[in-house]
Amino acid sequence: MDILIKNVTALVRTGAGKYETKTTDIAVESGRIVDIRSGIDPAGAKKVIDGSFKLAIPGLINCHTHVYMTCLRSLADDLPFTEWLFDRIMPNEDKITPGDAYYSSLLGCTEMLRTGTTAFLEMHMFEGAIARAALKAGIRCVLSRGLTGTLTADGGMRRLEEAQREMRDFSGEELLGFAFGPHAIYTTDAGYIKHIAELARKNDVLLHIHLSESLTEMNDCIKKNGCTPVEYLDKLGVFENRVIAAHCANVTDNDIRILADRKVNVALNIRSNMKLGNGIPPVAKLFDAGINLCLGTDSAASNNSLDLFNELAAVSLITKGVERSSVKITAGQALDMATYNGAKALGLESGELAAGKNADIVLMDLYGHAFVPRNDLVSSLAYSANGSETDTVIVNGKIVVKNSKIVLKGMRKLADRVSKITEKFEVNAK
Questions:
Q1: In this predicted model, what pLDDT tens digit does every residue of 50-66 receive, in sequence order?
Q2: Architecture (CATH level 2) of domain 3-59+351-406
Q3: Cβ neighbours of residue 93 under 8 Å, at least 6 residues apart?
């Protein structure tokens, strides 16, 4: 075997939102968990990790981000959403080169790994750059080139060709998967969206789209099309695909019924929505409708952080406050969203510690303040942990974080390089 983790406290999923811990051994071979039980013979193991005083959890899964935008962190805060996006972010985003995107993405990937995230769904605009960064960092990634424009103008077909070329060029990489990414209903037209949806169905590829993020998007769609954004996409046949809809912060009861009936996966981005003043998704209603809910950070430009533990805490605590109910959403249900549900949405064999699953494993220091005393480790993960307790991260059977440090060398130079990129940005760009 490649790796044997001995005598570790493992978090094992026993049902929806239900977990138990047990002291056990975890054997890893060829990128998979091959055995979980006590007393596994270490003879022949290439690497033995002492799991004493460590908590093994499945790696967290970030189901919506723009990691190439890490260099835009803290550049345009405390602004109205439309000003933030169109006057500050987009003009500076246009200054990012493919080389900038690579280093910015690499920094974002290492931030996620260091805080226990082992896979992410990316929407980007730089062919190949984010793929190379993810492979360099050793993190699992599902890539979707952001698709804007139309079939005949505004670069729509060029972007689609870039997306398909990227899928071909990196098709053999174990750590990479792909999705088609029509950006949003307000940056595309009906013909382009339908074309992308049909292409996704034909090739059995996931579809990734921003949906009902702001009230402006909702109101403009009703005014233009006589229906909500969710109803609009349903009429276009988009939900006949496997879909991850990011945000859904502003949805009606009928929208929720459609999302549930069409089995749309919803990636909640709680902190980003709040920070940009876009509201709070009706998490309890979405959950009660049986929708597969997963978590995303959105970009560091809107969230300022790619630490998914922040989202894990936020989705439970904010829902309890909004619903005035201490039992909505439980710690275990929130943990599902950050792991098991994310894997289900992305079609990954990850998200839980079980034989046959991908060896995407995080070992957390049980001496970290969040876990002392050890009354309820699931509650500690949801309400106390912040990612700093991460000690070891294994992705696809390879150690990428050891002793709380990224294995990849040159992190100080990387930080300096990304900081240098920001010199070209205008704080008050317009």
A1: 999 999 999 999 999 99
A2: Roll (2.30)
A3: 69, 72
